[in-house]
Amino acid sequence: MGEEHTAPERYVFSFGAGVADGSAEMADFLGGKGANLAEMSALGLSVPPGFTLTTEVCRHFSQHRVVPDGVERQVRDAMNRLEETTGRHFGAGHNSLLLSVRSGARASMPGMMDTILNLGLNDSAVEALAEETGDGRFAWDSYRRFIQMYSDTVLRLDLEFFEEIIEEERERLGRDSDAEMTAGDWKAVVTRYLAFVEEELGEPFPQDVETQLRGAIRAVLGSWMNPRAIAFRALHGLQDQDGTAVTIQAMVFGNRDDRSATGVCFTREPNTGVKTLYGEYLPRAQGEDVVSGMRTPLPLSSGQASGHGVDNADRSMQVVFPNVYDELKCVSERLEAHYGDMQDIEFTVESGKLYILQTRTAKRSAGAALRIAVEMAEADLITRNDALLRIDPLSLVSLLHASIDPDAERDHIASGLPAAPGAASGQIVFSPDEAADLAERGKKIILVRTETSPEDIHGMSAAEGILTTRGGTTSHAAVVARGMGKPCVSGAGTLRVDYDAKTLSTMGRTFDEGDTITIDGTTGEVFAGAIAMRKPQLSDDFRTILEWADATRRMKVRTNIDVASDAELARDFGAEGIGLCRTEHMFFGDERILAMRHLVLAETDNDRESALLTLLPSQRRDFVELFEQMAGLPVTIRLLDPPFHEFLPHTEEEMRETADALGVPVEKIEFRAETLRETNPMLGHRGVRVAISYPAIPEMQVRAIFEAAIEAGQRTGRPVKPEIMLPLVGLQREVDFVREIIDRVARDVMKETGQSVEYTVGILIELPRAAVRASLIAQSCDFFSFGTNDLTQTVFGISRDDAAQFLETYRQAGIVEANPFITLDVEGVGELINMACVNGRAVQPELLTGICGEHAGDPKSIEFCEEAGLDYVSCSPFRVPIARLAAAQAALRVKNGAS
Amino acid sequence: MGEEHTAPERYVFSFGAGVADGSAEMADFLGGKGANLAEMSALGLSVPPGFTLTTEVCRHFSQHRVVPDGVERQVRDAMNRLEETTGRHFGAGHNSLLLSVRSGARASMPGMMDTILNLGLNDSAVEALAEETGDGRFAWDSYRRFIQMYSDTVLRLDLEFFEEIIEEERERLGRDSDAEMTAGDWKAVVTRYLAFVEEELGEPFPQDVETQLRGAIRAVLGSWMNPRAIAFRALHGLQDQDGTAVTIQAMVFGNRDDRSATGVCFTREPNTGVKTLYGEYLPRAQGEDVVSGMRTPLPLSSGQASGHGVDNADRSMQVVFPNVYDELKCVSERLEAHYGDMQDIEFTVESGKLYILQTRTAKRSAGAALRIAVEMAEADLITRNDALLRIDPLSLVSLLHASIDPDAERDHIASGLPAAPGAASGQIVFSPDEAADLAERGKKIILVRTETSPEDIHGMSAAEGILTTRGGTTSHAAVVARGMGKPCVSGAGTLRVDYDAKTLSTMGRTFDEGDTITIDGTTGEVFAGAIAMRKPQLSDDFRTILEWADATRRMKVRTNIDVASDAELARDFGAEGIGLCRTEHMFFGDERILAMRHLVLAETDNDRESALLTLLPSQRRDFVELFEQMAGLPVTIRLLDPPFHEFLPHTEEEMRETADALGVPVEKIEFRAETLRETNPMLGHRGVRVAISYPAIPEMQVRAIFEAAIEAGQRTGRPVKPEIMLPLVGLQREVDFVREIIDRVARDVMKETGQSVEYTVGILIELPRAAVRASLIAQSCDFFSFGTNDLTQTVFGISRDDAAQFLETYRQAGIVEANPFITLDVEGVGELINMACVNGRAVQPELLTGICGEHAGDPKSIEFCEEAGLDYVSCSPFRVPIARLAAAQAALRVKNGAS
Lengths: 899, 899
Prior knowledge:
The structure is a homodimer.
Chain A (H helix, E strand, L loop, with lengths): L11 E5 L2 E2 L6 H16 L7 E4 L1 H10 L6 H16 L12 E7 L9 E5 L3 H11 L2 H18 L5 H15 L9 H19 L7 H15 L3 H10 L7 E7 L10 E8 L6 E9 L3 H6 L5 E2 L17 H4 L1 H18 L3 E8 L2 E9 L4 H13 L5 H7 L6 H4 L2 E2 L7 E4 L1 E4 L2 E7 L2 H9 L4 E5 L7 H6 L2 E4 L7 H9 L3 E3 L5 E3 L4 E4 L2 E4 L3 E5 L4 E4 L4 E2 L5 H13 L3 E6 L4 H7 L5 E5 L9 H10 L3 H26 L4 E4 L13 H11 L3 H11 L11 H6 L2 H21 L5 E5 L5 H22 L6 E6 L2 H5 L1 H4 L5 E4 L1 H9 L7 H9 L13 H18 L4 E4 L7 H9 L4 E4 L4 H19 L1
Parallel strand pairs in A: 15-16, 16-17, 17-18, 25-26, 25-32, 26-27, 27-28, 28-29, 29-30, 30-31, 31-32
Antiparallel strand pairs in A: 1-2, 1-3, 3-6, 4-5, 4-6, 7-8, 7-10, 8-9, 10-11, 12-24, 13-23, 14-18, 15-22, 19-20, 20-21, 22-23
Helix pairs in contact in A: 4-5, 5-7, 6-7, 13-14, 13-19, 14-19, 19-34, 21-22, 22-26, 23-24, 26-27, 33-34
EC number (chains A, B): 2.7.9.1
Pfam family, one (chains A, B): PPDK_N
Catalytic activity (chains A, B): pyruvate + phosphate + ATP = phosphoenolpyruvate + AMP + diphosphate + H(+)
């Protein structure tokens, strides 16, 4: 009603000739491309002039299928300015203004939306262009390209017909390639194009340039909601409501003449980060010729030969267009300095004049990213904080593990889930025992299983990598492999394992035990044969960045380990303590598993105690080794967690072996396995429930912990202060029950040895009830450690072992954005963590809080932990460097957000 | 420090001779017995005078092992008053005051703590007593009883030695029974007792009566913490810190002479509630003679013969002691009127004088309770609200189901869990198919299984009762049986089912298929053979109480059903709608399961749709029947919930049958079963996840619902307003996804039929995440229904199928007080329900809230629902009357609590 009285909204922003209405800060509004064109224009760089329609136009168009009132008038005004700047006229025939119309959203969506070039050509303008340039071939080729693109994106005709017409004409005229086509040839093609369009649509191809422009703008706006763009955004977590900007720009032609060219340049070498003008160009070509790959591009610098053939060094831009090369170098340095980061620049040279079409932050390898960040910070171009924020912590993964040589040939046979990063080649082995045997004899092994279980640990530990056909990225195989730093591909569902035949097969191909395969746990791919590898690269830059991160972060970074021997590696990676030592893995060794099975099969307290007496010395040895290794750093030990049935043998053969070894009838083992069978083992008789049912077990473990703490403390001279953690707690009384045992055994050991040990007792919060009742439970606890794997399972009601089936459907349908087992569900699980922290600290101000689920190695989740004020994150050893950097970034972001 | 200046705390309260320091309201402080003695004394009833030490004394004693300062002096003062009142002297020899010392806590703990009678006797007092009463036998017998009790409770000597001494003396003297013992005989026994005590303790039996009294008080106080008392309290949910009072009272002797007696009387007949003096007495006896069962007691009233033999009617108190009988009748009426409830009175007659020793609210049968409450309210003795509050809702269970005749002989063979109330006899049958066949031929069947699954429904429905050897009170068998109102005993772990041999065996006994057994689902017992039964009793009083309840309660009571035919029964019981219709049970019928299996095995959308087309008409028929039955009352329909694998056949034979029927290879079924297998099915691919994976399924169900709503609405003339409920929701987007389908199908059906249907869409809250994110999810919902079975599983992280093992340990160790699957865990699960309600209503003020888990039939949980302000509870049909009463009680309690 009152709208006509308010100032009309501004939908169009012009740029060019050293001035611009917009700037680089306006990417939300002008898209990345539009904003950077405005910025470069304001910097005085040579940018073809033009204007940008804001994303608001797109939002309005997506909803109402029309552009908002006022847009047409603002476009008209901008076109007038553009005609003035260029001295050309749109639709004028002679001296005609030709345009490109491109989409450009805030985030790059390469190839997803429509682009139209050479707009403004028609039957008369093409003749004038031919005359002005003296190059009829160029003019008619440009016209046919325009008709093709416009017919495709605006008129929605099938491109195939146009390709067919060219094919037919080429054949008729006897031309081997497009390069041989003459002006007359292209003119003949254009004639057939125009006839075809008229026949298909019942009206002629639009000759009115205003109609062309309106149609092109509508088509580009419409392409925002085309299915592949929607799918791309869903896949990359981008929002439909962001909308795209549309940039309309005067055309420049890299294919106009021999002094013309087009290309892409990086301000640094993207694999190493070394400062040099790096990139490629094509003389006499338009942008799409570079992209299409029909012609091989040439190097920019003469020293930059790799991948372009040595003989091409003489054809480098530095040699062929030395002046332009020097100008580009200048521009490149200016842009890098201006943006304070390595740039990826698109340019065109038209008749010897350089135009910059686009600049953006360049993609680079992880190693390069580290070098650039460190170099720039040391040169005071950016702050150390900027340097820290600029590294994607997850990119460090590739530096910590071997990777497949990107140039190596590969024979892809299957894809699974990227369960643990790194790549490895080895012989297929199906049995963990055999894997251990062969590895001892020096063979490189890939352990292949449908899924793994705790008793396969020795085989996994012996293998170079693990491949499973079932299970997700948080399956047993995945979690253990990540802990060991071994590559793992899980859930490769198209592969079929036949244990009896000892074969691994996929569609039509069968591999036998002993055949070599390669797995890439970073991508989830599986290949036949061995492939050349790149070793892990731990550069000085890597160390520098982590040192800066350590000086910046608030949260401590600890590590999760299974056996004492993991601790050394974790300390090398910078772990400041153990946040989770899973004691049950100590029971899967060859001799120990027998004592453990004896325990599980025990029918009387006496029987149980004799089994525990056997286990005590080995537990104590484990803890001594661990405490010595950690030399006074904090160590959190989780009491026995898994349900009893996990310790029983599964196959008939193993049952028989165990029966023989323990001198019991095999039926007894079968019967016990049947009694222990659970419908939902995740929610079963495990965790602190086992400790309460069989108090002799925590008694043994706690005795081992205290005896070891005293022994290790005496040897290293650094007192050990164990943190004893109870798993799967839901009730305060559970804590009180076990705490009473811990305190009693501690008193006993201290009395027996005459030594005193400080210790704390805390819980793993894995159940919603523990979070909800935190204010009570905290009264009995010294620390809370969030076991976010299980907490996610219980809060969501999703078993991670069974989730693969529907979580993928959920992701595709946009119901979840990220796998909640990888990135913490801040809204649900996070809410309970916050509740537990706030309520727990209210009654226990000294409460130590941490997280030890898989999420502790995920940067987004680490940011949540910083916000929640946790004291530490604890992740698998190979994730420690990532967590150190991510914790620093989180500290910076939270500080910035708060200030 | 300053204590001596404050008024000393009062630890001792006297009563007797028509006055009292305390009253009935002080039970927390004086114990039930002490408080009622004070009250009766104040009423002017004939109560032996005495005084009571408060529970505070016990609390202090339990902690410090001494009585508080001031107690000894207050006891001395009270003794002085007592000597005055009785005109006797403690420790005086002649005219000696004799005492009883008894414990008495707030709640009755029969036989758990110590009692000492005849205290104050010693070597001189006994002689004086003999002289005064002229009855040496009575005096010496009283002395030896005192020595015995005192030695046991205070001196901690083994009673066996004393029994031995009597035996030896009786033999030596040639007496057949105690009745033949003379004064001299008892004196000889006393001499040996005293010698024995001195020999054992090295000092003589205390002759000083003050020492006796102090010792007795200490012993009674100490008995509060004896192991059996602690165990009793743990079992009955009583608190250790409550403490017991100690009542010291002048002795009266029911065994003094022929005009003496002792007995117990009820103010009404406890089985029927009919007003009459009912009870039994023993002439010339002390209280413990009645309890010990050595002598058969006689009836009080001459008309009251049952159980006492007809020939005993002439020996009734009414005949033998007519004056005392009349006085007792008077007292009885006065006490019932005074307390406003039926009383259970202990009395003693000493030489013709009646003394009342104790009165308390009498235990009664459920039927009697109803009659008494209604009669008293109609006589304006109590209010209707009092009447409602006086009935234990759970006691109604026994009136709704058949029960075993309490007088029948029984041959107990095993005990399981009381999974569904009622009793039934029938032949053992192991296969559901056979059960259905035999039932059709008129046989009465008990279906015996290790555990049941949804495809056993037809067999369960045909059986009289169900017996399983695995599973808890919320197992499939239990839940379905309760829904059907059939008795069920679950988890009878000592029984062993052998399906191949068709036997049911227990230690040493084996039953074959066809043998008759009886199960009692109210107690969990299993018996061999058939046993006489009592039919359910739905009296007018029952109906009256429920009418009053309906007028009082705020919450609606709905019911949970599986098939339309359950609805009629539920309406008879007063259900005001369906809160949960589990649609999957409709798919287990003989023909439908095949179509359902076809659906599960379908590999393409086409295949799936053809299976769904087969299911549509039968779903529609089910819903038409249901809507007609409910005639416009609200009906909540849950969309398909179970995981697909529940519909597949389990045994090889069934797999083969299914394969034949569907014309697919059996391997396909096996393969599909393997693919669908889940590690934790509770947390798997079920609930709304199935609807999102296969949208054609909700489309079919929703179409059936709307077509049926229109058809039934037209037939009954009452418009149907379906409430469609999505199970296992955790995310708002899940609701949006399925709601879009519902809205679309609803529009389609309305367009096709030209009819309009109002409907609502809501969710089952079974996941912590749904509760935590309620403020978002409520934006997409019309109602929340709390599925507290699953919510308890996820909040606690306990699978109810696997919980039996450790929950019992937990209960015994006092870690949980009640099974959280039976009584709602208010602190954990309840907290999340409150959170969901508060946050949900904040964004959606019209949000309807209810509960449809098993807890909806549990009175304690219903009280929580009232406090949380839920709109309705929905329970299985047989629980509806219980819920109606419990909801009324909850409304009254919350109102009283709030006022």
